[in-house]
């Protein structure tokens, strides 16, 4: 691996040069990663932001770090299916709660979030892992749930319910076979 730094004051063109070098190196058959030092805080993966620009230019990894944040994004050469348990294992220790967004088919205990206005079906009747439903339209639920119905617009109430039911969410990795 070869590593080169680009230094200069804000507005000097560092990001633009790096953005242009990525495809130039990729055309030579090389894989390129970027580490971005953000002096203050940063916003990621929005059009025009440095990390977005580097990713769009073809970087396979972008690590952005500031005194208060760090994020690592990886682009895959081919689409990948991620196992939520493998992703949980990658987290560093220290969190009291891990909030997993998506992965609706996973074996994790979950709270279904449902809005009638979305026009989407509910998943709770078919999934025993759904322990509660957070909704802004309880009257529109297609089946009476045999689970608690939480107010989607009252996050403090949802948090209180989670804390009160924490034992139901204690995580143990699945047994390896």
List the keywords.
3-stranded parallel β-sheet; single chain; 177 residues; alpha/beta; 3-stranded mixed β-sheet
Element order: H for helix, E for strand: HEHEEHEEEH
Structural class: alpha/beta
Form type: elongated
Biggest sheet strand order reads 1-2-3
Quaternary state reads single chain
Return the average pLDDT rounded to an integer. 90
Approximate helicity band: 10-25%
For the termini, the CA-CA separation is 36 Å
Quick summary:
The protein has 177 residues and is of the alpha/beta class. It has helices at 14-26, 50-57, 84-90, 155-164; strands spanning 33-37, 61-65, 70-74, 110-114, 130-135, 149-151. The model has no long low-confidence stretch (mean pLDDT 90).
Structure commentary:
The protein has 177 residues and is α/β, with parallel strands linked by helices. The chain is 21% helix and 16% strand. The chain is built from 4 helices and 6 strands. It has helices spanning 14-26, 50-57, 84-90, 155-164, and strands spanning 33-37, 61-65, 70-74, 110-114, 130-135, 149-151. The chain has a 3-stranded mixed sheet with strand order 1-2-3, with helices on one face. Strand 2 (61-65) and strand 3 form a beta hairpin. The longest helix is centred in the first third of the chain and has 13 residues, at 14-26. The radius of gyration is 22 Å and the shape is elongated. The two termini are 36 Å apart. The model has no long low-confidence stretch (mean pLDDT 90).
